[in-house]
Model the fold of this input.
Amino acid sequence: MAKRTSLSGFPEWLPSGRIVEQHILDELRTTFELHGFGSLETRSVEPMHELLRKGETSKEVYVLSRLQDRNNPHRSQKDDELGLHFDLTVPFARYVLENAGRLVFPFRRYQIQKVWRGERPQDGRFREFTQADIDIVAQGELAFHHEIELPLVMLDALGRLPIPRATILVNNRKIVQGYCQGIGVENIDDALRAIDKLDKIGDDGVRAEMAKHGIADHQANQLLALAAIRGTTEVIEQVRQLGVSTPLMDEGLSELDALLMETEQRVPGGVVADLKITRGLDYYTGTVYETILEGHENLGSICSGGRYDSLASDGKRTFPGVGLSIGVSRLVSRILADNLVEASRSVPTCVLVAVNSEDTRGESNRIADQLRARGIPVEVSPSSAKFGKQIRYADRRGIPFVWFIDEDGNSAIKDIRSGEQQSADPSMWVPSDEDRYPTVRIVG
Done:
């Protein structure tokens, strides 16, 4: 008998929780395809030099090696150079480079896969989890309008889920980088990483972090003034009132203004500018995004990403892109922990076909086959116990209907929730749409 061994950071949902997760994944898949994104799946393993391209991630990578090679002095060095991917962006960039000659650009893909990250598990953070990504990648040049399109696609997807209202927070890295140039900050990447920690360490923590990198206190105060700006189209003028202007900053403000104008018209209040959003990874070059749930801001961002111009390049060609990634496991864990939604049942089964005796089990199986042929999820009772016990079995499983066959071969279907029973023909009977498959709804 297997011993119970709990591993933190590796979520395993109960059947009802899995129903909720599958519902979310199905809704995301459907919505992404409605917007013209095609499905992609990449390998789970990447060379270490590829995984380390994104910066400070070396401590997060799970290194892959063969058990038989641990004590083998003649093993190939390449065996130590593989790791499990910690996100879906790096493998996607590699995939684009390897298949560029066979792809049609701009290339639109969604990808829903497990990823592995060796960080300390905590609320909403796991070592193994599911992500759902969408990206648009071009060859050479990527039109700015895709940076407007992507948050609208994601708002559509999130709006179809049984979750609280989502708001996408946006900024443009060009604004912050240009602002740094205008106030004389040289260590721009360090400044951006410090601002990215503002919600966690506060103003004083950001000042201390910037001081470590030679950023003067008055410059830190100017950056904190910029980071405090939040709103919709009015933020553009608020930034200009800070009295700093550079060509790069003006370009970023123009792009942010266009994004806010378009999204406010199409999804009022769905996209909000937040000038402290910088995203710590230094490969982002334009618009950056984070997403919060109303009433669950303490969970942090459930969906983030941005514009990148040089993550995918072979030295001759560059493939700029823009992407957003949903932490599905992060979202599901909060939904289940706070009982935000519930599944109508924990099994897909709609009908349990009762068994009169083991000698007539074949007849029950034939009824089940007829119902399944018409798309109705069915299982046959595991025993030919008294009907009361078979009904109780269905009730414990959450199965709404029990099918009975009398001695003359006539059928009847019973809704065990209401107790109502009626004659039925297995070639014609259909459940309601709500009963055919499990449904998921917001609680309250």
